[in-house]
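Fold these two proteins, one after the other.
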Amino acid sequence: MRIGADYVVFEDLTKIKNKRLTSSPYANRKIAKFPKKQMLRHGVIKALKLVFTVILVNPRGTSNSITHKQVIMEKGLDKHMASAYIIAYRGLKRLKNKNPQKPPQSNPT
């Protein structure tokens, strides 16, 4: 079954701040209980089984940033869709930078 996509973009959840970087006990408890690595591993394995190319992007600024607010206003998206839009855009940008289009080679005559 093909769905017309070749790539899957995930936030690199290992870059989410560690427990020691916050002073809030409530935040520490939530960060400690959230299985970041297991969730990422499960998604990556599932994507690879379905023959997708996996791209990991930095999650910084995908939910609280000026860019996030601009995407919400310009595109008319809710905050979750705006975050997904930013993540997808970063993945496409990384893909474009990784595989730049090569100009056609001319034959010297």
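Now the second one:
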Amino acid sequence: MHRAYFDFHGLRLSYLEAGEKHNRKLFIAHANGYAAGCYDYLIAALSADFHVCALDFAGHGGSEGTLAFDSWDFFRDQITAFFAYKNWKHCIAIGHSLGGGSLLRAAIENSDQFEKIIAFDPVMLSFPAVIYVKLFGNPMARVALARRADFKNKEQALKIFSRHPANRNWENDSVRAYVEYCIRETKEGDAELCCDPAIESRIFSQAGWRHLLQLGRIRCEVQLILPGHSNVCPPRIAARVTAKHPRSAIERVAGAGHLLPFENRGLTLSLVKKHL
């Protein structure tokens, strides 16, 4: 696995790449506040059979960031720009949360670029939820803005995140991957979050509804993997996302949460392999 870069509207975006380039193409898109490397276990396992690329969205991981965006189309466009840069005409895509929602938005624009999408609890808010966020704000945005961003070093960060209540269900390897790929050392010798809390908060604050009118344009195969109850992809929207392709389906994982890819790596990998 190696890191490479490409330009997106003046921003230097990073991606992780592994596998033989003549193999079938597989793309991975991460959740808000995280990074491509948090899914290192998927990259390692799948690169034996696929040419895998995992993008760091702007402001995450090794990518440059900006606050100059006003919708999640900004992340959709990074995906399509990456495909154009790599000259990928057709691929399988795996997305989680923001990544899954952005892949589905990309499929609205052009479903032909996807052989299939495997989406773990993609953020596709209902119309009432969108209105709530516009009127009252997203509580997750406030949580993100208050997030601690600076640490003495990576060792201190690892200790903090290993004990943090929010990570109590995470596997140890997931915590280590988070510190490795989502926290960087500074020139002064300390450490900081790669994703500025202001960027993470702004992402949570974006709420659009146009895509809700266009879900019928998703014509590629979509495998939705959802918790028993999803707060971000309600049943009616999930049904519409999977309505147009005969092999599309919804799978609910009892006892799973929104962060299943970090809480149970083995199950996540097995679900991915099941749907490839």
